[in-house]
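This is your field. Have a critical look at the following sequence-structure pair:

***
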Amino acid sequence: MEMTQPPGQPGTERRIGDVILDLKNISLSFGGVKALTDISFDVKQHEIRAIIGPNGAGKSSMLNVINGVYRPQQGEIVLRGVHRTNMDCYGAAKAGIARTFQNIALFKGMTVLDNIMTGRNLKMKTNFLQQAFYLGAARREEIAHREQAEAIIDFLEIQAIRKTPVGRLPYGLQKRVELGRALAAEPEILLLDEPMAGMNVEEKQDMCRFILDVNDQFGTTIVLIEHDMGVVMDISDRVVVLDYGKKIGDGTPDEVRTNENVIKAYLGQAHEGSAA
C-alpha cells in the first residue's frame, strides 16, 4: 500500500476479486467451553467483510484465529491458496495481516508519530547494529519509514496532533491513531475489532469514511467486527453472523437483514426500524 494518493480523491475502481482467505470448519474451545463450532466462511480480495453477532458470539475469537493469537483445535485456514493452520501472530503479520483491537492497545506515553512508526517494524531491513549506531543504511531507512508514517498522518487528517502523546488524546482520535498504526504495516488484509465502539456520531462518520477510503484507494481487504447495524449494512459487501459460537447467517447485507434466524438471534426490534 503506497500512501501517494491524496485523501479524498478517487482511487482506481474497486473490484472484488477471488477468495483470499478461506476458513473451513473452524472449531475452538477453552477447556470445556466451545468458543467456535464448525464455522466456515471466506473473504474475497478487496471486499469489506463484516462479522456480527451478540456479545459472546465468538466474533473476537474468530479474529484471533485469523491473525494467529489462537490456534483452532479443528479446521483449516487457507490464505492465498496456502494452508496456514499453524499460523502464529508473527507469521500472520509477515503474510500481510494487520489488526486493531476492541480495547485500544497504543503506547500512551509516545507521540502519535512514534506510535504509527511502530507499525513499520516488520518493514525494517537493517540489522540491530546498524540501527543502534544509526549507520548510513539505517538513517536512510528511517527517513523512508518516517515519510510513510507522515503520509498516513496526512491521510487520517491528524497532522495537528502528530507530536502529541497519545494518552492525552480523546478516545475517538486514539482509535484513529490505532488505525494508522495498522495501516503503517501496509496490510493486504486489515482486521478491525469494533473500530467505532464508544464513538459519537461525528466520530463514527469520520471512521466510516476512512475505512471506505482505505478499502477503495488502496484496495485493502477488510474484515470488520461492529455492533452498529447501520454502519455494517451501509459499508459491508458481505456479512457473516455468529451466535453462541455458531454461524447462523452469511450473505449480502440485504440477505442477512431478512434472514429469520438472524432477526431472532440478533437484530430483533432493529429489523422493525428501532435503533440497534
